[in-house]
């Protein structure tokens, strides 16, 4: 059987291929037939290059529907899609191209000069261009090809994509995802999140990352759902399109920016079925404010490039967990169907409920390893085959998972473990504190101590020494940071994750 992911996604297209699949913020409309034909033409162009199956096709381009079609075409032609953040500069791109050795690099016309030079030097055979206005040599070449294409036969374990991890804790690694990894996760989420005919997805995420490219797009295609496609997240535009949508997926910063809009209210969101958040922790305060302002409870889920989605708060009553249906703020919910999750100690044994341990997982969604890094891959799997996510968490008696941070962010002070999330939670509850981030800093006596970075709520005047004093009344002394600094903003990456490596450099 042909396990090509495109065929799985294609089955979700509606019978009427003239219906609207995508409507963009620039007023363009793409029918399902356009998706089918456009990706066929691009796939035929890729086929005409006569590349060995499994060649890497790198995309260093701005968000556009055509960039999504290139992804689908890569699947159809049996190659491996390599999305790259378009803001990467030459040193970063050089590393990815050297490591992945793509046969084809697609870049913006504006970057063609330096990208093509760098790619050709590293052995790439074809460099073509694509902008976000349907311009560039890629589409010109595809225009000469047929709009009919039979997807290449692929086995379930064949590679479909390589996603480079954001590398906030070291050199970026290429997570190898197969057709089966992607298909199994997409089909399961369609069911778990209760997709129904008529759902409309408001798509505002970037498409070089697992969240916007796989989780959002696969769901919409599999469900035959129209996407309202925004080239980037702009709160005003989101509000304007909200009444026409039913599902929204965002990172926590999207939600805080929407809350800052006076126009956000329950009336505007009355047609919405589901708000999903992930890629970084959502503050409980944001979760609660969203409920008050919109009448909707955000569904927070947790996943990563290496595993796709791992846990989710329930959409509806989950029979696997005593029929519980509550979405809990500060929790990432239950392990998803098919995912085996354990919270383990260094020996791989499950720790007691509420105790912090390493989150380890198994399932059809878990990647095959890091591209050309067998030793690194071996280190990240336990002897009994669990992937060590690098996240630390807890499990409660009801089955809800909570994340307390990355293991690399753990602070060991005087031999005792300090989990930054616990300190951040305590800080965030102090009057006048908007948000905080805690990192370790070297200390001659304790080895390491915490350093807290704090953002004040608008109009609040904070005094660092007073904040630390207030913490002393709430936490054991060894947990209280020794230094506290006020910031106007926390450094974040494109997915809204706080860059603790940047903060560590600052201390
Ligand atoms: P990425 O591979 O870029 O998607 O990053 C994955 C990492 O993001 C995970 O290992 C977690 O550390 C973090 N992450 C994703 N979703 C959540 C969430 N809902 N809450 C807390 N951390 C999250």
Can you tag this structure with a few keywords?
507 residues, alpha/beta, globular, binds adenosine monophosphate
Structure, described:
Helix 2 crosses helix 3 and helix 10 packs across helix 11. The radius of gyration is 23 Å and the shape is globular. The longest helix has 17 residues, at 32-48. 29% of the residues lie in helices and 25% in strands. Strands 2-1-10-9-11-12-13-14-15 form a nine-stranded mixed beta sheet. With 507 residues, the protein is α/β, with parallel strands linked by helices. The chain is built from 15 helices and 25 strands. It has helices at residues 5-10, 32-48, 65-76, 90-100, 112-121, 137-142, 179-192, 210-222, 235-241, 252-259, 284-294, 374-379, 420-428, 464-472, 500-506; strands at 20-24, 29-31, 56-60, 80-83, 104-107, 126-129, 159-164, 174-178, 200-203, 226-229, 247-250, 274-277, 299-304, 308-312, 334-335, 340-344, 357-362, 369-370, 387-395, 401-406, 411-413, 416-418, 433-443, 447-456, 483-487. The structure holds adenosine monophosphate. The site of adenosine monophosphate (AMP) has 18 residues, from strand 13, strand 19 and strand 20. Residues 165-166, 210, 278-281, 300, 302-305, 332, 389, 391, 403, 406, 495 line the site of adenosine monophosphate (AMP).
